[in-house]
Design a protein that fits this description.
By secondary structure, the protein is mostly beta strands. The protein has 3 helices and 8 strands. An 8-stranded antiparallel beta sheet has the order 4-7-6-5-1-2-3-8, with helices on one face. It is globular, with a radius of gyration of 15 Å. The chain starts with a helix and ends with a strand.
Length: 136
């Protein structure tokens, strides 16, 4: 499955997810991203329902590259809580330079960005497949 396929199945995509952990296994060419996904209903009058989150594990397999920007020093020490992120397909973020690929990539894969709000930095990945496992 592609990242885009997963994102459209979620009520709010990967918008405003909370990053729990990020792990890349270079030998397996796999990235595991533990998240609290925002699955709240914006139409609800109950705040707890609007802000509801659910733990999940996003696994990206066939990872060909992972580029992590250093955190912006102006943001680094200010925030000690969870890190709120947004994620999307690389071609969905206009105005941002596209990461130069290290070589030709298979046509079946996808490139994504992850923006770490409390670090003001991006992570860019290219992978062949994505899966999502609910942890609750």
């Amino acid at each position: 499955m592609t990242f885009g396929d997963l994102a459209v199945r979620l009520p709010n995509g990967f918008h405003d997810a909370e990053l729990i952990s990020f792990d890349v296994d270079c030998l397996k060419r796999e990235a595991r991203i533990a998240l609290h996904l925002w699955i709240g209903d914006l139409g609800s009058e109950i705040e707890a329902e609007r802000e509801r989150r659910c733990p999940a594990l996003l696994t990206l397999s066939g990872v060909r590259y992972c580029v992590m920007e250093p955190p912006d020093e102006r943001y680094f020490d200010e925030h000690q809580g969870s890190i709120t992120i947004d994620m999307g397909l690389a071609d969905s973020l206009s105005g941002r330079p596209v990461i130069a690929l290290p070589g030709p990539m298979p046509s079946s894969g996808f490139s994504i960005w992850i923006f770490l709000q409390q670090r003001n930095a991006f992570i860019d990945l290219w992978a062949l497949d994505a899966s999502l496992e609910w942890k609750a």
